[in-house]
Amino acid sequence: MKISTCLFVCFLLLLHIVANAQGAIAKPVLDSILPVRGFCIAAPAPDQVPRFIKFLNEELAPRKVNTLILRVDYNYAYTSHPELSSRHPLTKSDVQQLVNTCRKNNIRLIPQVNLLGHQSWAGTNGKLLEVYPAFDETPYVKLPEKYVWPNADSLYCKSYCPLHPGVHKVVFELVDEICNVFETDAFHAGMDEVFYLGEDRCPRCSGKDKAELFAGEVSTIRNHLALQNRELWIWGDRLIDGKTTGLGMWEASYNDTYRAIDMIPKDVVVCDWHYERADKTPVYFAMKGIDVITCPWREPALAVVQMNDMIHFRKESTKEMQEHFKGMMQTVWSDADDFMDGFYGLKKDNKEGTGTAWDCFKALYSRINGEEK
């Protein structure tokens, strides 16, 4: 860590100590250093809502988390399209409890429904393509009984066709409903790891520029949300050149969608995830005039490095770029119940290697709140 960044972090810690001695946290100072202090997790199952609310009150709020993204997808009892709801969905009453708890704790609550990509998983279609198979970008790719990667079809997750004339009516009715029930001013559309796009055998997309297709879908979603003064958030991997950077096909794009970064509206918020290195891509997004949030997962030491980078970028950049470095967001890629079990020591997850999402969350927010040096 450079001396200037180290001194800045020490200054933050000193303010925290002084504020604690006076019986209050210097929240405005923390807001100026890391405006977004986020947490992203799958929405709890209906029977886990009380437990998750307790977690919100006792763990997220005291750590000064101010942004919560809940991955809802089809786990809500939609009235606009009940055929797309999962078997045991959240009800409006469940969501209202979450909304009230977040409001009480000054936490911005943002729902996520995966759009464009992630319309299947392993050998199963998601609800959208299950109910509306005509929306499938690659209907000729059959889901296997036993999924393996790599495979002959390069199948990771299916996508819907962004040019299908009926797809946006359906998905936007879902988006509007979930945004209304969450009483939110923002929506996360996912849009990560889109491998199927502009396929040669698609009668609508064949021959079209994949970057233009991706940018067009981002813009279409953004423009729809803007009608209700809502902000669009997405994951950032499809906007990075995976070959030139060496970041690969998961954290970045191999199918030329990266050029879309110069075609999308500048008010889209990018959640920039890197789980193995502290890649400096936030600078790339900020230089393009786009707000960016760094997103760790399961490596505690790495998350702290990424946080220090974010503080440094925000402090040392020009005034034009400073405000684009928005902060940090812990990501969790398990369900809420599993995470809480791990967080409270009720389970161990050896599959995640030397670190876990709950270890990472604890380390990151300990440093954010000045509890560790």
TrEMBL record:
UniProt keywords, alphabetically: Hydrolase, Signal
Transmembrane parts of this sequence: none
Hydrolase as UniProt keyword: yes
Limits of the Glycoside hydrolase family 20 catalytic domain: 89-334
Molecular function GO labels: beta-N-acetylhexosaminidase activity
Signal peptide: 1-21
Family, as annotated: Belongs to the glycosyl hydrolase 20 family.
Protein name as it appears in the record: Family 20 glycosylhydrolase
Organism, as annotated: Panacibacter microcysteis
Classification of source organism: Bacteria, Pseudomonadati, Bacteroidota, Chitinophagia, Chitinophagales
